[in-house]
Design brief:
Number of helices: 8
Distance between the termini: 38 Å
Organism: Naganishia liquefaciens
Bound molecules: 2-acetamido-2-deoxy-beta-D-glucopyranose
Strand order of the largest sheet: 6-5-7-8
Mean pLDDT: 88
Protein name: Ferritin-like domain-containing protein
Order of helices and strands: HHHHHEHHHEEEEEEE
Pfam family, one: Ferritin_2
Strand content: 5-15%
Structural class: alpha+beta
Shape: globular
Keywords: Signal
C-alpha cells in the first residue's frame, strides 16, 4: 500500500472543524440551500475522484497492481453512484447549484487510489452525519440519509473487499462539522469557477500528529488535542510539543483547540486540523468502550 497512515493524515491535515455535541450542531442557522451546495461540493469532488482514476488506470493497470477484474468493475458502479448524487443534488438546487471545480488527487497507481478512496468515503460519511442535524426539510434529510448509507457501503466495500482492512470503526460513526470537513478536502481543490456561490465555511490551518512519538505540529503547549471517535469527543493536553492519546480503533479525527472542556470544542476554539488517525480495527479485539473519559 503506497499510502502510509501518516501520509493519509498529511493529506487530510488541512481539513476543517467539527462542531461538537449534537445540541450545538442543531442550533446551526445554515439554510438548506447552503447545506445542499455543501453536499454537492463534496459529491462533485467524489465524482471527479472516481472518474479521474478510472480514466487514468485501465483494466490492465488494475490487473498489474494485483486486483481482480471485479474491483475496477465495481469502482465503475461507484462512479455512477457519485454521478447520480451530483445529478440529484444539482436538480434539487437548480440554478443555485455549485459547479464542479478542478481537483488534484495524489493517486499515482491503483493501490494509492483505493487507499484514498476508503479515506474519502469515510470523510463523506462523517460530513453527512455532521450536517444531518442542521437540515430543516424532512425530505432533504431522508435524501441525505439515503446518500449517507450508500457512501458507508462504498467505504465498507473498499475497506474490506479491496484493501483487506476493517469496514467500520466501532458501534458509532463519527460526525464532523462543516468547517472540519471543508478543511479536510481543501488540499484536493485546485480552483473553482468564479461563478460558484461562496459557501460560509473556512479551512483551519494544518495539523499533523505522529502516532509513533505523539508529536504534533500546527498546535502548541497550552492547547489541547480534541479526539473525535463515534459520538464522543475528549481533549488531551499538548505538553512539550506532544500529546498522549489513547489507542484508537478504526478511523478517528483530531483537531487542535484552545478549549479544555470537550463539550465546548467547536469552530470558535479550534485552531488547527483535522488530521485523521487510522488504526485498522482488528477482528480479535473488543469494541471501543462506549465513551472516552476526558483528560480534564
Ligand atoms: C463543560 O461545559 C459544559 C457546558 O457548558 C458544562 O456543563 C460543564 O460543567 C463543563 N465541565 C467542566 C469540567 O467545566
Amino acid at each position: 500500500m503506497r499510502f502510509s497512515t501518516s501520509t493519509l493524515m498529511a493529506l487530510v491535515a488541512a481539513v476543517a472543524t467539527y462542531a461538537s455535541p449534537v445540541a450545538k450542531r442543531q442550533s446551526s442557522s445554515i439554510d438548506d440551500v447552503t447545506i445542499l451546495n455543501y453536499a454537492l461540493t463534496l459529491e462533485h469532488l467524489e465524482n471527479a475522484f472516481y472518474a479521474g482514476a478510472l480514466a487514468k488506470f485501465d483494466a490492465a493497470a488494475f490487473k498489474a497492481a494485483g486486483f481482480p477484474d471485479w474491483v475496477r468493475n465495481r469502482f465503475e458502479q461507484i462512479a455512477s453512484h457519485e454521478q447520480s448524487h451530483v445529478d440529484f443534488l444539482s436538480g434539487a438546487l437548480g440554478s443555485a447549484a455549485v459547479q464542479p471545480c478542478e481537483y488534484n488527487f495524489p493517486y499515482t497507481d491503483p493501490a494509492s487510489f483505493t487507499a484514498l478512496s476508503a479515506l474519502i468515503e469515510n470523510v463523506g460519511v462523517s460530513a453527512y452525519l455532521g450536517a444531518a442535524g442542521s437540515i430543516s426539510n424532512a425530505a432533504y434529510l431522508t435524501a441525505a440519509g439515503s446518500i449517507l448509507t450508500t457512501e458507508a457501503r462504498h467505504q465498507a466495500w473498499v475497506s474490506s473487499a479491496v484493501n483487506k482492512n476493517e469496514a467500520w470503526s466501532g458501534p458509532y460513526d463519527t460526525p464532523v462539522g462543516f468547517n472540519v470537513v471543508y478543511s479536510a478536502v481543501t488540499p484536493f481543490f485546485v480552483s473553482c469557477p468564479a461563478s460558484n456561490p461562496a459557501l460560509p465555511f473556512k479551512a483551519f490551518p494544518a495539523l499533523t500528529y505522529d502516532a509513533a512519538t505523539g508529536a504534533v505540529t500546527g498546535a502548541s503547549d497550552g492547547q489541547y488535542i480534541a479526539l473525535y471517535q463515534g459520538l464522543d469527543i475528549a481533549t488531551y493536553p499538548i505538553q512539550g510539543g506532544k500529546v498522549q492519546l489513547p489507542t484508537t480503533q478504526g478511523t478517528a479525527y483530531i483537531t487542535a483547540t484552545s478549549e479544555k472542556n470537550a463539550t465546548l470544542v467547536g469552530d470558535a476554539n479550534i485552531v488547527a486540523g483535522p488530521a485523521v488517525i487510522i488504526n485498522h480495527f482488528k477482528s480479535n479485539v473488543e469494541n471501543p468502550a462506549p465513551g472516552f473519559t476526558s483528560a480534564a
